[in-house]
Specification:
The chain has 109 residues and is mostly beta strands. It contains no helices and 8 strands. A 4-stranded antiparallel β-sheet has the order 1-8-3-6, with no helix packed on it. Strands 2-7-4-5 form a 4-stranded antiparallel β-sheet, with no helix packed on it. The mean pLDDT is 97.
């Protein structure tokens, strides 16, 4: 089994829309070390982060962050260390299109 350290995904989603940031590739497991949410606007924004199995619609039970405020022109670093199986999905949501997300970790295949 080989480990690959990498940027797993980067995204500036549309406002108020659950959007997939990262899906674990087939025959791979992943360890998410951190997620960064960067607020590019002059006002505070809120974010949501959900982790769910492939094929599942985002539901209340999937959220690991909900309504988390990110100050104007600031970045919220989520140091998390979670493991995911093949096809698991990390979805994000922002109250404005002025938020950018990055996810970092290790894929093992």
């Amino acid at each position: 089994m080989a480990d690959t350290l990498k940027v797993l995904g980067q995204l500036a989603p549309s406002a108020t829309t659950d959007t997939d940031l990262y899906t674990v590739p087939n025959e791979t497991v992943a360890t998410i070390s951190s997620i960064a949410a960067c607020n590019r606007s002059g006002g505070a924004l809120t974010i949501r982060v959900a982790v769910r199995p492939q094929g599942a619609t985002v539901a209340n039970k999937h959220y690991i962050y909900y309504g988390k405020s990110v100050a104007a022109n600031d970045t919220e670093f989520i140091i998390i260390g979670i493991t995911l199986s093949a096809s698991d999905v990390v979805s994000v949501y922002a109250s404005s299109g002025d938020m950018a997300f990055s996810i970092f970790g290790v894929e093992t295949s």
